[in-house]
From TrEMBL:
Domain of life: Eukaryota
Family: Belongs to the phosphatidylethanolamine-binding protein family.
InterPro entries hit by this protein: PEBP, PEBP-like_sf, PEBP_euk, Phosphatidylethanolamine-bd_CS
Gene giving rise to this polypeptide: LOC112294611
SUPFAM superfamilies, alphabetized: PEBP-like (SSF49777)
Entries under Pfam families matching the protein: PBP (PF01161)
Transmembrane segments: none
Source species: Physcomitrium patens
Signal peptide span: none
CDD domains named in the record: PEBP_euk (cd00866)
Protein name: Mother of FT and TFL1-like protein
Length: 151
């Protein structure tokens, strides 16, 4: 994917067919920061949205991330943006961008946002807040777009 096509945060849409009022947390990271061959800043945190209602699905269309359409309505109506969205901007090479979805143990989900984006650990975050194992995950690839050449 081109980073310019992912500048805006995707809309989140979930279809939870269970009987309960479930809420979810979505985390987006880059495990290849700053470069795939030397990911010394892995995982780079790009986004955290909590309190996403499981019944936020519908016939709405998503913008930007069409490949995430089945899993991912606007964060203002479908969750609380804990860490603001930062679109993919790989400095070098092809980077993977992972979207991991967890079912929350309760709502509202009272957590503190991480103080830095580098060296984030999805596994440690999930463990610390009792999120358990992911219920869904997907990823995309992005690479740096070539600059415009002037002649």
């Amino acid at each position: 994917m081109k980073p310019s096509a992912t500048a805006q945060a995707p809309e989140i849409q979930l279809s939870d067919n269970s009987e309960g009022n479930n809420y979810y947390t979505l985390i987006m990271t880059d495990p290849d920061a700053p470069s795939p061959s030397e990911p010394s800043l892995r995982e780079w945190l790009h986004w955290i949205v909590t309190d996403i209602p499981g019944n936020s699905g519908g016939s709405e269309t998503t913008s930007g991330f069409s490949w995430l359409q089945e899993q991912v309505t606007h964060t203002s109506s479908s969750g609380r943006e804990l860490v603001p969205y930062m679109g993919p901007r790989p400095p070098i090479g092809i980077h993977r961008y992972a979207f991991i979805l967890f079912k929350q143990p309760s709502t509202p989900f009272l957590i503190s946002p991480p103080t830095v984006r580098n060296n984030f650990s999805t596994r440690n975050f999930a463990s610390h807040y009792g999120l358990g194992l992911p219920v869904a995950a997907t990823y995309c690839n992005a690479q740096k777009e070539p600059g415009s050449r002037r002649r």
